[in-house]
Amino acid sequence: MIALVGFMGSGKSTLAKALGKHLGIPVYDVDNMVARLAGLPKMVEVFKTGGESYARRLEAEALDSITGSVGIIDCGGGLVTYQPSLEKLQSLSQHIILLRAPFELVKQRVGNDADRPLFAKEEDALELFNARISQYEFAATDIIDIHGQPVEDLVNEVLEVTG
Ligand code: S3P
């Protein structure tokens, strides 16, 4: 199992889909799994109804439902900040790959996205970004620096780090 972690807008979902297709293995989109568990259309609605702590607990529950041993886990940007989820992710995954993108890039990509509740105010998002970096680096077994390279190149970089 390969897990992708990193801030909103680092490109986890795009890369997860490309990897799943390239390798012919399942993709576990944790945001979608959480929404399904909550009986809501999207992760943003889970935040609106139950708040962040509810969403974090459901992320841990979603990880519990992953039974296969091969696949790509596309994590929401805050999943590794909740210790029980981090531990589950570590026990599920051979590789936890951090997509480390600069703030300017993630801002360009998601700065105006109504589906990203934690990106509503830029200065709050920057503060969160700075606080998260060390958490991501702590969780990661491998790091890929993101600077806008095409997804095909990222697939190859993942294949290199996972051997
Ligand atoms: C969050 C990131 C989002 C989603 C939720 C909270 C976060 O996922 O889980 O809005 O705390 O960083 P993406 O990283 O897929 O946007």
Short characterization:
This protein is an alpha/beta fold and about 160 residues long. The chain is about 55% helix and about 10% strand. The protein is built from 7 helices and 5 strands; from the N terminus they run βαβααβαβααβα.
List the helices and strands and how they pair.
Elements: E1 2-5, H1 12-23, E2 27-29, H2 30-38, H3 43-64, E3 72-74, H4 83-92, E4 95-100, H5 103-110, H6 122-139, E5 142-145, H7 151-162
Helix pairs in contact: 1-7, 2-3, 3-4
Explained architecture:
By secondary structure, the chain is α/β, with parallel strands linked by helices. The chain is 56% helix and 12% strand. It has seven helices and five strands. The protein has helices at residues 12-23, 30-38, 43-64, 83-92, 103-110, 122-139, 151-162; strands at residues 2-5, 27-29, 72-74, 95-100, 142-145. It has a five-stranded parallel beta sheet with strand order 2-3-1-4-5, with helices on both faces. α1 crosses α7 (151-162), α2 (30-38) packs across α3 (43-64) and α3 (43-64) packs across α4 (83-92).
Can you give the helix content as a percent range? 55-70%
Overall mean pLDDT:
96
Strand neighbour order, sheet with most strands: 2-3-1-4-5
Bound molecules: shikimate-3-phosphate
The beta-strand count equals 5
Query: Which H/E pattern describes the elements?
Result: EHEHHEHEHHEH
* Overall 3D form: globular
Number of helices: 7
Q: Span from first to last CA?
A: 13 Å
Estimate what percentage of residues fall within beta strands.
5-15%
How large, in whole angstroms, is the Cα Rg? 15 Å
For the report, how would you describe the main beta sheet? 5 strands, parallel
Structural class: alpha/beta
Low-confidence stretches: none
